[in-house]
Amino acid sequence: MTPYQRALKKRALGAAAAALATALFATACGDGGDDAADTTSESEEQVAESNDADVMFAQMMIPHHEQAVTMADLADTRAGDEVRQLAVEIRDAQGPEIEQMETLLDSWGADRESEMDHSDMDGMLTEEQMTELEGAEGERFDTLFLEFMVLHHEGAVDMARTELDSGINPEARELAQEIIDAQEGEIRQMNEMLGVEDSGDEDGAEATEEEAHSGH
What is the DSSP string of 180-200? Predict the structure, then answer.
């Protein structure tokens, strides 16, 4: 279980406990009549609109995307033509997705930020890795950018798959599938640019991760 999945499970347990406490309190207070029924109906509608998985998906994917955009911005003045063009495509795709997720959170009445430590997110680069990328140029930058972005994308794909497994909001689930489709294609593209053979299994992914961290 990834840190993201553990945090989601913890949040779900907390929500269940809160719901139980609310139900017990309502029972103790007696029959609330039509007002109580209306409140229950409204609550059910809100639950049907989104759940904890949807909220966490958006809250976590926003800073995840923001880091990818920051990485893409670095490529403007440091990367070769091929990597620079890829970075532009990543930025153009993920910028609007950030705005979409912020709009979703607002519509759900949820905070845009989560209490979860962003460094625990799947594929999130450390401060040391970002510093290393910022200090590189030319071919060295291209290699680091591709290796780090592969790891970053793999983390986003894992988070999106968790949303498909646990989320209920149609728009959030559709966005998750779009992220999977787009970023898996970019992972294949970046591995080709790195000369890494796409084995299509976890061993290949682990090998890519080892390469990204070895000697860095």
Answer: HHHHHHHHHHHHHHHT----S
Collapsing DSSP to helix, strand or coil, 201 comes out as: coil
**Cα 95 from Cα 22, distance rounded (Å):** 39
Q: Enter the pTM of the model.
A: 0.73
pLDDT digits (tens, 9 = 90+) for 142-201: 999 999 999 999 999 999 999 999 999 999 999 999 999 999 999 999 999 999 876 554
What number does CATH give the domain 3-213?
A: 1.20.1260.10
| DSSP 8-state class, residue 55 | H
How many other CB atoms are there within 10 angstroms of residue 144's CB atom? Answer: 21
Cβ neighbours of residue 174 closer than 8 Å, sequence gap 6 or more: none
| Residue 160 CA to its chain's centroid (Å) | 6
For the chain, give every domain's residue range: 3-213
